[in-house]
Design goal:
This is Glutaredoxin. InterPro entries: GLR_AS (IPR011767), Glutathione_S-Trfase_N (IPR004045), Thioredoxin-like_sf (IPR036249). Pfam families: GST_N_3 (PF13417). This protein is an alpha+beta fold and 79 residues long. It has a single domain, classed as Glutaredoxin. Helices cover 39% and strands 22% of the residues. It contains 3 helices and 4 strands. The protein has a 4-stranded mixed β-sheet, with helices on both faces. The longest helix has 12 residues. It is globular, with a radius of gyration of 11 Å.
C-alpha cells in the first residue's frame, strides 16, 4: 500500500483526514499511534516529529503532517 496514515484514536483532526480519504475512495493503511507523544517513536522516525495525523505517500515520496495540509494534498493530488 502506498498511502499510510498515522493517527490517534479519537483525534478529531485524524478523523477529518480519514473521512477525506474515504470520501475520495483512496486505499490506505492506518497505523494507530500511542496517546503519549513520548511513545510515538515510529511517527518521529517517518516524519521528524511526534504529532498526528501524518500521511505518507510512498509512491510520490511525500510525508506530511498538519491536517489542513493533508486535506489539501488529498483533494489536489489523490482525489
Amino acid at each position: 500500500m502506498s498511502i499510510t496514515l498515522y493517527a490517534l484514536d479519537g483525534c478529531p483532526w485524524c478523523e477529518k483526514v480519514h473521512d477525506a480519504l474515504e470520501d475520495a475512495d483512496i486505499e490506505y493503511e492506518t497505523v494507530w499511534t500511542e496517546a503519549l507523544h513520548s511513545k510515538r517513536d515510529e511517527v518521529a522516525r517517518v516524519s521528524g516529529q511526534r504529532g498526528v495525523p501524518v500521511l505518507v505517500d510512498d509512491e510520490r515520496g511525500v510525508t506530511m503532517n498538519e491536517s489542513a495540509n493533508i486535506l489539501e494534498y488529498v483533494e489536489r493530488t489523490l482525489a
